[in-house]
Structure formats: C-alpha cells, structure tokens
Amino acid sequence: MVKTTVWDVRDYTSNLKDYPNLSEIIETYRQGGLIALPTETVYGLGADATNEQAVQGIYQAKGRPSDNPLIVHIYDTDQLDDFVTNVSETTEKLMEAFWPGPITFILLLKEGYLCESVTGGLNSVAVRMPSHPVARALLKEVALPIAAPSANLSGRPSPTTFEHVYHDLNGRIDGIIQSTQSEAGLESTVLDCTSFPFRIARPGTITRSMLNDILPNGIDEAQFDNSDKPIAPGMKYKHYAPETPLKIFNVLNRPIDEAGQQDWSQTAFILPESFVSLVPKEAHIIVLSESENDIQAASHNLYAALHQLDELTHITRAYIYGYPNNDEAEALHNRMVKAANYQYVEGEW
Ligand code: TXA
Ligand code: MG
C-alpha cells in the first residue's frame, strides 16, 4: 500500500498557479511519482514519460499488459521535436485544428528521449495535447511529457469522476488530483498518421466527418474493429463490459407491457429521461440524458452509468438505449456495443 494524497483543486480550475500545493504535485512528478489527473476526456494516470521506472509503475498500478503502449501528453507542439519525426503538413494542419483537445495522433518515434516502455517497443508514439485547464497548467509547470493511460484498473471502465479513480487506485499511486466530472466522458479519438490514408484506431469526440473536413484525401474508411491485425495494440485486449448482462434497445415509443407477469425489480434501464415513463416502475432507472437525441450528454454520462451498474448487486439484467447511430455517435456506439458484448433486444424483453 502506498499513501495516496488527494489534491482537491476544484476551486482552482482556471488558476491552478494559485493552488497552495502545486509545487508538491510538480515535485512528485519530477521524482517519478504517479499522479492521476483530470482531462476533458477521462481521468488519466500520469507519470514522467522519460523515466523508465515511473512508467513501469503505471503498468504495475493498473495491472496493464506492458505491450499496450501509453499516450504521451504535452503542453506545446515544440515538445514534439524531442521525440517524434517526419510530421507531415497534413498532420500539422490537424494539430492546429484540434489541439488542444480530445484527439491523439500516432506519429513516428524519434528514439532516445522517451523511455522505452511508453511505446512498448513500437517505432511510433501516441501523442495528445489535452484542453482541460488543470491538465494544461500541470503540463506547463512540470515541463515534461507525461505518459497517461486512463486512470482505471485494467479491465474496468475508464474513470470520468474523482470517485471512480479513488475507487480503483487509492493505495496504489502517489496522488489523485480531484476535479469535476470529465466533460467529454469518452477517451480521445486515436488517429494513426503513420500510414496513408490516415486511419481511425479508436473513435472519439473528434468525429470522422470533422477529420474529413480537414483531410484533402479523407481517412481510411476501413472498419477499425474488423481488421485482423489491430492497429491500436490495446484493441486486442478484452474491452470493459459490466458484470450484469447488458442489451441495447433501439425503440421505445410505447410502454413496455407490465401485464406480462414479469418481475422487473432486478432489472435496470439506462436511458433518456424522456423514456422513463415508458418502463416498469419497479425497475431501476439510470438516466443518461434528457432527450433521446442528446449524444453529448449520453457520452458524458455513459461510464458513470456503467460504474453505477456494477455497484447494484441486486440487478441481474440491464438494458441501455442505443441512441441514433450517426457520425456524432460513433464513439458512443463503439463503447456501448462492446459493453453490451454486441447483444441487442430483439422482440422479447
Ligand atoms: O482520452 C484519452 O486518450 C485518455 C486520456 C487520459 O488522455 N487516455 C487513454 O489512454 O485513453 P489509454 O492508454 O487508456 O488508451 C490509449 C490507446 C490504447 O488503445 C493504445 O493501444 C493506443 O492508444 N496506442 C498507444 N500508443 C500507440 C501506438 N504507438 N500505436 C497505436 N496505438 C497506440
Ligand atoms: Mg484505457
């Protein structure tokens, strides 16, 4: 057991420089400590990306296989010169358009600066410049590239609140920076810029159409899930799914028949507020959004809902509303479909 310090910076979101314990946080990172930090996507578990021992500590604390490489977080594009090479003009254009923000670029690695286990021996490196004001201020102050996977135990959903991080990692890391719930709620888009045309290795808030608007030749439309050789090494590992069997449903325009003798008290529904009156009263309700079209709210709340579901020990089955399947919803669907192991409600509830 390590003592995990909690640094509550909620009153310093836009002025972290005034936070009295900032220097303690920065010193801990510089000495190779592990500190979870808020970002606009999900909370990350950060450590100095140039320090081999620190990065090994990340894999250990998460119980993560060491051949699944980490994302390196930066404050300024000038830092790229230290550890990437051959950045194309098109990639620079994308960086200008979307950084700081929820997109990660896979770039060619320049060896010798980052420690080896960050990239798991690949000749490429994943880089992101987060926009969360706390993350930005930390990256600027620490003046080091910070390796940070999502701050969950391997096999658990990504954390979108301080409580989620605390639940998984208290006693395993040096500290947690407490901020509010992550805005986007799903992990960043991962775009592989090392092959041509560029490929989405993981869908996220920056959508396919937003990328196509900037890319002269578009992106590779190959389905990231169906390629036999996964382009994000993490894809080969089992994605998180809750203990409770979960199914996706796509229509609910009239009440579910309550006359049918079913006991609904062990059933949970994860859905928009606008559908609540249509499901049996005895069922457990988790609201994802107000309206059935609000993809942003559903994305923001999905992981918190799945965390909640795992804690409801009396629930034996759960149903989640599928939301419209459009460009904006690609990331939401990607995570939801995996959490449900590709199971849909067909006919019978
Ligand atoms: O939003 C996010 O991206 C969060 C926050 C903390 O920034 N981080 C995150 O990290 O989701 P993680 O480690 O949970 O996911 C990183 C993904 C993994 O699927 C990994 O396999 C992939 O990026 N990846 C990392 N380096 C790669 C590389 N060189 N080539 C291809 N995929 C890579
Ligand atoms: Mg993760």
From TrEMBL:
One of its GO terms (molecular function) is double-stranded RNA binding. The keyword Acyltransferase does not apply. The keyword Cytoplasm applies. Its EC number is 2.7.7.87. GO terms for biological process: regulation of translational fidelity; tRNA processing. ATP binds at residues 64, 150, 158, 202, 240. This is Threonylcarbamoyl-AMP synthase.
